[in-house]
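Hi,

I'm pasting everything inline rather than attaching a file, because the server keeps stripping attachments. The sequence lines come first, and each chain or strand is labelled.
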Amino acid sequence: MNRAVSFFIFVGLSFGSFSAEKLSSGLIAKGTEWETSYYQRDSGVEGPVVFITGGVHGNEPAGARAAEQIRHWTINKGRLIVVPKVNKPGLMADIRYLPGKPKDLRDLNRNFPKTKQDPTAKDMPASALWELLKASKPDWFIDLHEGYDFHQINSDSVGSSIIDVKGELANAIVPMMLEVVNATIADPKKKLVRLRYPVNGSVARAAHEKLGAASMILETTKKDQPISKRTRQHRIMVHTLLLHLGMVNKGTAHVLAPSKAEGLKIAVYDAGGVGGSGPRNLDKVFTGKKVILRRVGAVDIRAGILDQFDLVIFPGGSGSKQAAALEMEGREVVKKFIDQGGGFVGICAGAYLAASNYKWSLGISNHKTFCETIDLPEIGRKSMWYRGASSPVKMELTEEGRKILGEVKGVFDVRYHNGPIMSAMGKEGLGAFRSLATFRSEVSRYKPQEGTMVNTPAIIVGEFGKGRVLCISPHPESTPDLYKLVRNAIRWTVPNK
Ligand SMILES: [Zn+2]
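And the predicted assembly:
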């Protein structure tokens, strides 16, 4: 073991069996700006050694996120070593390269030992990762990446492909990985294809040529696809390999979060009907906090993944489109999750989704929204939910609001963008909501909207079955000064944690 690699070990019992799976973790490039964690699971049973990396390129987040999920998978044989965030500063800055490095060293995936050259890696963090790789003696090496476009549509990008080394081992499994992941993709042009051979200087090529590992680079595509979908594709491909190797059980591909965690386990819906910056802002709200935050899609929800979480957040966008993406089955899953004690947070669109006045809404919060369609002279038929572009409004906390959200006194600004104007629905069998905050100003575009927003509730809470439901009409999650208020609001939905 190289001295740059620190090491500590703890023993955990693998779930559902008595086999002692030994978990350990440590840091590579310790004490440098490139310091990053690695995790090892040793099944204690003879078997293959699989090494997985994510975040080699900082602007390819799905690989890092998938690796962070995969590291929690219980394994039955062999060893699994995962380094989720190899280029951590790049991931933080959302840039491909190693921040601050000169041009000839900035692409981490060109700094590994090249064909017919010395088996040494150039510079940090490549040299630190290379030492851990050598010490681990991997049979398989998997590097998780993303392209900017679908390779079948734009051949300049390697997006949606598996780039593997030649060899019998890969030949036996890569076609199967493609088949399984492609079965989840409807558009033939967006299906993954097999490419070869990993570029010179890449860690995948070096792991094969210098260490004898069967290597592959898995590439998803960033373009027009939510992170939940890209991480799911990575998980499915890796799971197919590990299942083929006899290392994991069926169904493990849907494990997104550890079964036990100190902090809140939060699912953030990011798929159909979600607008621009909501999920990204929620990442910022929880930066540096001890929580498990995972992006989830409608497919994941229908597959039952909410059981791994304490609460689910539906951010801004379109409530009706979120409902459509969930489909009837997904909506029922969400309702059951809340009914049985899960937390629900709806922000803007998510507060429409929770409402009780639409055919498509969940009916888990006893409010209706002001959304009539009105004939306006000389303008035409207009739906009243639309109030124009994003703009600041005034908001004030109620007494209960100050208890739950924190002592913010007086009136303050919050960003508003067509959030619901909420009022009592009076639905039977569902308790009335309580208001935590009140709008103290309003925005309107059409005459009938004037006076309908000011002094109405901006944030409301209620119960549905054993679960708690929080609806926020404006967007406090896009203002750093209000992050704490948002965290307090979200935490309220899970009283026992
Ligand atoms: Zn890449």
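The mean pLDDT is 94.

If the labels don't parse on your end, tell me and I'll reformat.
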